[in-house]
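Go through the following before class.
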Amino acid sequence: MEQKELDGKVWEVSGFVFENEEQAKLAKKEVEGIQYIHDNMNMDNPQMVQEIYQRIMAQELFHTPIGYAYLKELQDYLKGLPGVDASEIPGIPVKDMGLDLDHVAGKEKSGEHQNENADKNSEEQQETKLQKRCRILLSVNIVLIIIVIAMFAISLTSGSTTILNYETKIINKYEEWEQELDEREAALDALEKQN
């Protein structure tokens, strides 16, 4: 019942290894459902077991190998009971599990074709990684451009002295002081002349 990530690519649930997290989550839900059914079902009552088996089949509750294994276990249990007609126990319908039927049926592919598929998969993975990196870099660049524009807007609209207008502010301040000093000197000279 435990689920763990192996190498960031493979997920394991109850001894079954899945290729992606979504399949593993579905399998984990099925394990929980199986546990619930097992805890609440009276295995000594064949009629109840058969009824639950048929309900599970009708509702198509299981879609992973874990669920199919449990259905097979129930099917074998029912077939082994005396007084139960094996013909009344329906078979387990298996939905498309994404298998490469040519490979499963035993048809061998040429080594070149397999290498081409491996190369294509490798190229697709590299292209996907490259596209992902490009999106990330584009996003970062856009954010940085927005920050730079915001900094310029703040510096132009703020009244405080910044590095951009620091020299102008200092020169203006000295000119004001010089003008004040000239006015005071003129006032002092005028007072001295009156005296």
The CA atoms of residues 1 and 15 lie 8 Å apart.
